[in-house]
Amino acid sequence: MSTTSYHIPALLTETINGLNIKEDGVYVDVTFGGGGHSRAILDKLGPKGRLLGMDQDLDAWGNRLDDSRFTFVHSNFSFLKNFVRYYGIDGVDGLLADLGVSFHHFDASERGFSFRHDSALDMRMNTKSKLDARTVLATYSEEELASVLYLYGELKQSRRMASAIVKARQAGEISTTGQLVEIIAPYIKRSQEKKELAQVFQALRIEVNHEIDALKRLLEQSLEVLKPGGRLVVITYHSLEDRLVKNFMRSGNLEGKIEKDFYGRVSTPWKLINNKVITASDEEVERNPRSRSAKLRIAEKNG
């Protein structure tokens, strides 16, 4: 499977520039996917450079790179620190996380990531995980469902949708994407149909894969594994993710609490490389519409 058919990397040039790659450096692409970003990193590395590519989805194993400098790690990036230690790496020069969902996942109808296909409600990135979208819809309370749809989907009709789901499941299990779309259709604006359906599916996917918790663990571990001067480069596609990354890069903590020293100077372990978030150009959005919502932030660990 080609990289292009699996996933088109967003903000590729800006990302690689942001990593500030050293020829003999050690880098980790924690969202390997189709390997697009990883290939570009390897192009910048010399013979002594090293790259780990992490992905919890075994489908990504088929895209692994035949290069002695590259190691594929089948794992969720929340276990980053363990694997850095396992492979005997003392410190990392750059971490990259592209939090977007690949073409592959949207187009693989049997995985249930998209409303474009009538398929089983799954949405698991790691197919061995016990929690899937069908289980969320079957077991979460109305309040819990409303919270998921509001927090992760930013849906104004979240409470009505949750109520409709709970009512519908009393008549039988909601097991397909088509059933879900039919249940929530009355609460979707016709003019915003594709956008709001995408928000519903995004919310369920984030919950099924514990994406926000995993991101929090990744950010906290980044400070432990990066060398002084090492770069953290993150691409987000959702306001909740972006807010977390922004707060962490500004303050060094997930709450975004700014601490100051005795002289009133802001005390933070990071230096911001871009104070203003980087977004895709009009030309890139035209080539790759999914890059429209991509936001890139870059920070360097203080020495």
Based on CA inertia axes, which overall geometry fits? globular
CATH secondary-structure class of the largest domain:
Alpha Beta
Secondary-structure class: alpha/beta
Please give the number of β-strands: 10
> Could you give a short account of the major beta sheet?
8 strands, mixed
Work out the helicity level.
Answer: 40-55%
Mean pLDDT across every amino acid position: 92
Fraction of residues in β-strands? 15-25%
Protein traits:
303 residues; Rossmann fold; DNA polymerase, domain 1; 2 domains; globular; disordered N terminus
How would you summarize the topology of this molecule?
Elements: H1 3-6, H2 12-19, E1 26-29, H3 36-44, E2 50-55, E3 70-74, H4 80-86, E4 92-98, H5 103-107, H6 133-139, H7 142-153, H8 158-169, H9 177-184, H10 193-208, H11 211-225, E5 226-236, H12 239-251, E6 259-260, E7 266-267, E8 270-272, E9 278-279, H13 282-287, E10 295-301
Parallel strand pairs: 1-2, 1-4, 2-3, 4-5
Antiparallel strand pairs: 5-10, 6-7, 8-10, 9-10
Provide a descriptive summary of the structure in words.
The protein is of the alpha/beta class. The chain folds into two domains: 3-103 and 211-301, Vaccinia Virus protein VP39 (Rossmann fold, 3-Layer(aba) Sandwich); 130-208, DNA polymerase, domain 1. 40% of the residues lie in helices and 16% in strands. The strands form two sheets. Strands 1, 2, 3, 4, 5, 8, 9 and 10 form an eight-stranded mixed sheet that branches. A hairpin with a 5-residue loop joins strand 6 (259-260) and strand 7 (266-267).
